């Protein structure tokens, strides 16, 4: 099941930005489009709150903790010697990235699941704070892949020329394609954290699973980058906004474009690949002894 246009970076242009949609509880309001929102910050304000190493260490420390941390314990773990200075930086985080918990925990919070209600007191991450830490741990902002690492063989032949395909590394992604011709099955940008610490020979399987994760999120209508609405459209080679590589030659006349209406993140795929997750397709393969959850897309006929 070839996927000639599947490039997770192909649709990186922005298609509009509606700002920060996350905030603290309370004070619901409605914007001009009727969307229910809570307190907003501009992107500049949101990132400025993280403009000191003490604040980043605070987020990382709270992420690694089993539950809320009292001020003194949090300061000690962060390694901040000055209580006043640490209190200042912590105060900048509270409300957006950090939540102060006094007494009984709110139902559904991480604190309520990790400690008794009468003992919960201190500071814990909000979901925006956890996502910030996740972005750092994924390696997308601090690490890169070794472009000189040896390619890994893929158990599939190129559908274009019949040569063996391989997984090849680049700084911020992995290309699964052919060495003997220009064919790319997929060429996604993958956070280094998704591959870090994993066996070298397992990279093709990890790439396939990572792609399936993103497709599953998109199938439910969400963007894996910004949680915006994901939209699907069929494009033919004669459309004005068809990608340049969709020339109509060699059978490449139609592609499926999945793209976020908020941030513009998305990808192209073949029609066959786009319907792989449909229940009827999954059931058909299962009845014929193929588990689509475990079988890499490039091994499908």
Characterization of this structure:
With 301 residues, the protein is an alpha+beta fold. The chain folds into 2 domains: 29-125, Arc Repressor Mutant, subunit A (Orthogonal Bundle); 152-299, no CATH class. Helices cover 28% and strands 17% of the residues. It is built from 9 helices and 11 strands. The chain has helices spanning 43-48, 53-64, 71-78, 83-93, 110-114, 127-137, 203-219, 271-274, 279-287, and strands at residues 29-30, 36-37, 98-101, 122-125, 152-157, 164-170, 173-178, 184-186, 230-236, 254-260, 266-269. Strands 5-6-7-8 form a 4-stranded antiparallel β-sheet, with helices on one face. The chain has a 3-stranded antiparallel β-sheet with strand order 9-10-11. Strands 1-2 form a two-stranded antiparallel ribbon. α2 (53-64) packs across α3 and α2 packs across α6 (127-137). The longest helix is centred in the last third of the chain and has 17 residues, at 203-219. The N and C termini lie close together (5 Å).
- Number of domain modules: 2
Mean pLDDT rating: 81
Largest sheet: 4 strands, antiparallel
Note the beta-strand portion: 15-25%
Q: How many angstroms separate the termini?
A: 5 Å
Radius of gyration: 23 Å
Task: Tell me the helix content.
Answer: 25-40%
The helix-strand sequence is EEHHHHEHEHEEEEHEEEHH
The dominant shape is: elongated
Uncertain segments of ≥5 residues (pLDDT<50)? 4-31, 104-108
Helix vs. strand class:
alpha+beta
User: In order across it, which strands form the biggest sheet?
Assistant: 5-6-7-8
InterPro entries: DUF7347 (IPR055771), DUF7351 (IPR055775), WH-like_DNA-bd_sf (IPR036388)
Protein name: Winged helix-turn-helix domain-containing protein
């Amino acid at each position: 099941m070839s996927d000639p246009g599947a490039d997770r970076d192909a649709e990186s242009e922005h298609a509009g930005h509606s700002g920060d949609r996350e905030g603290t509880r309370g004070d619901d309001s409605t914007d001009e489009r009727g969307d229910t929102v809570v307190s907003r910050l501009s992107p500049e304000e949101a990132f400025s709150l993280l403009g000191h190493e003490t604040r980043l260490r605070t987020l990382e420390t709270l992420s690694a903790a089993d539950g809320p941390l009292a001020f003194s314990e949090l300061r000690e773990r962060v390694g901040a010697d000055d209580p006043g200075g640490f209190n200042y930086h912590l105060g900048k985080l509270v409300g957006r990235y950090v939540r102060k918990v006094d007494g009984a925990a709110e139902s559904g919070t991480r604190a309520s699941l990790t400690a008794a209600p009468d003992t919960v007191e201190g500071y814990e991450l909000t979901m925006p704070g956890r996502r910030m830490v996740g972005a750092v741990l994924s390696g997308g902002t601090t690490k890169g892949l070794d472009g000189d690492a040896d390619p890994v063989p893929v158990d599939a032949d190129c559908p274009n020329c019949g040569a063996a395909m391989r997984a090849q590394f680049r700084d911020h992604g992995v290309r699964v394609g052919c060495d003997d011709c220009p064919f790319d099955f997929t060429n996604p940008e993958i956070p280094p954290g998704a591959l870090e610490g994993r066996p070298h020979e397992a990279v093709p399987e990890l790439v396939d699973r990572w792609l399936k994760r993103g497709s599953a999120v998109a199938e439910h209508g969400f963007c894996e980058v910004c949680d915006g609405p994901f939209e699907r459209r069929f494009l033919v080679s004669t459309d004005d906004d068809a990608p340049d590589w969709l020339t109509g030659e060699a059978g490449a006349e139609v592609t499926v474009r999945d793209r976020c209406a908020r941030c513009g993140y998305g990808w192209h795929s073949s029609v066959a690949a786009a319907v792989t997750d449909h229940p009827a397709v999954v059931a058909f393969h299962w009845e014929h002894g193929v588990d689509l959850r475990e079988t890499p897309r490039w091994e499908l006929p």
